Every structure is written in C-alpha cells, then in structure tokens.
Amino acid sequence: MLTEEQIQRYSRHIILKEVGGKGQQKLLDGKVLIIGAGGLGAPIALYLAAAGVGTIGIADADEVDITNLQRQVIHFTADVGKPKVESAAEKMRAINPDVTVRTYKEWVSAANIAGIIADYDFIIDGTDNFAAKFLINDACVQGNKPYSHGGILQFVGQTITVLPGQSTCYRCIFPEPPPKDAIPTCSQAGVIGVLPGVIGSIQATEAIKFLLGKGELLAGRILMYDALGMEFRNVAIKRNPNCPICGDNPTITVLRDELDALTVCDLEH
C-alpha cells in the first residue's frame, strides 16, 4: 500500500495507465543490480532511484578519479578519492529515501558473481572491460537472470537486453573477446561526456519496463546510436544455435574469467 507521501512523490508515474498504483508498487518491490558505477552506471543509478525501484545493488571496486567527472555525473569533485559505490549510494539515498541501496566494493569475478546476482530481478552491465562483459553474460544466462548490456566509445553507443532462454545473448553476437590491442582504450580513444547519459538512460528504461511487465524490450535486437550523425539504428539479431553459452550444445558449462580480455571505453571507470 502506497503512503500519501509516495503517492505524491510518484504521482507522474501513477497517472500513467501503464503504471498506476499497482505498477509503482511493482517498482518498489523490484530489485535491480548495477555492475559498474562509472559512465553508464551513473545515470542508471540516478534514474532507478528516482523512479522508486525499491532495492538497488551497485558493485564496483574503483575510487572516484578526477578524469571520471567529465561523464560520471553521479560523482562530484568533492568525491575524488572516495569509493565509487559509496559516492553513488549517497546520491541515490539523497534523491529517494524510499530506496534501499546495497553496495559491493569488489570486482565481479567467476568466484563471486553468481552469489551477487542471485537476489536480483534484473541485472545491468555497467563494466569497463570485455572480461566482465562476457562473465556477466555467462552468469546471467546460467542463472536465468535477464540483463541489459550497454557499450560506448567516442561518439557511438549500443545496448541490448538479454532474456536467457528466449533471446539473443551477448555471445551470440560476440562469441569471444577481441584480440588484445584490437580496440583502443578509453584513455586512447576518448568518449564524449553526454554519451553514457543517452545509453544509460535507455538501460534504466529497460529495467523499469521489465519490472512493470510493459512495453517491448530490446530483446533479440541491438540498438545502436551515433551521436555525431544523431541517428539510431535498431538491428534484429537471431539467437545463434552454435552459441557457446546459450546454444543447442553449449561448450561453456562453468563460469570463467577471461583474464586476457582488453579493457575498453564502454562503461567507464
């Protein structure tokens, strides 16, 4: 039952026929985990907290650096040197005291990811390296956890939602990490500061739609955004029956760390 204060706070949600009071209660009952408190994680965390998603986990072992401030809008100049999960949690709680924020000051790995994601309804990939991206995909597929992937570099971004057992997974598109040095790092290639705001907001929207059970998710299709051309492309991608994790005869049956995978610019730290 929503309180009078909650009815006021979420009034612009409640008047939407797709949400209403019941939908807002679903959001308050929902649990979303954000892995990565950087470029994409920042807008995702702010919007999910403001929307009233009741339990939000945020995992990141890094600390705020001055180079982050150009794009990671949840962190302020005074936060430099502070653990990112603590900085993010402070802003989320300040926006909305209804929200329970759980912090995990650790990198996800094959040893801990299954336990971290277990209690959440929806997972959002906000990491900055291919090793983590492939691990998150594999763990979510094996654990039957729906999740959103997002990536950014320079002026372009992409995002796709994965529904295990139903839609295309990350390895259906990219079976394995690219060779080392094949893609420039963030410090080498750069990224326009507003780009993660666009892609992260879309990822947050996907989480909200999933919790509400409304709308069409980006499942089986990848959304690509070119900021310079101001163009969006929506490309349908079928499941790969030979996918090593979700295919007909999977070859990956145990979670593993892609130790040689390259750190890239998508989902900054």
In short:
The chain has 269 residues and is α/β, with parallel strands linked by helices. The protein has helices at residues 4-9, 11-14, 20-29, 41-51, 84-95, 113-117, 130-143, 170-173, 186-189, 195-212, and strands at 31-35, 55-59, 100-104, 122-125, 147-153, 156-162, 221-226, 231-236. Strands 3-2-1-4-5-6-7-8 form an 8-stranded mixed beta sheet, sandwiched between helices.
SSE topology sketch:
Layout: H1 4-9, H2 11-14, H3 20-29, E1 31-35, H4 41-51, E2 55-59, H5 84-95, E3 100-104, H6 113-117, E4 122-125, H7 130-143, E5 147-153, E6 156-162, H8 170-173, H9 186-189, H10 195-212, E7 221-226, E8 231-236
Parallel strand pairs: 1-2, 1-4, 2-3, 4-5
Antiparallel strand pairs: 5-6, 6-7, 7-8
Helix pairs in contact: 4-5, 4-10
Written overview of the protein:
With 269 residues, this protein is α/β, with parallel strands linked by helices. It has a single domain, classed as Rossmann fold, CATH 3.40.50. It is built from ten helices and eight strands. Helix 4 runs parallel beside helix 5 and helix 4 runs parallel beside helix 10. The radius of gyration is 18 Å and the shape is globular.
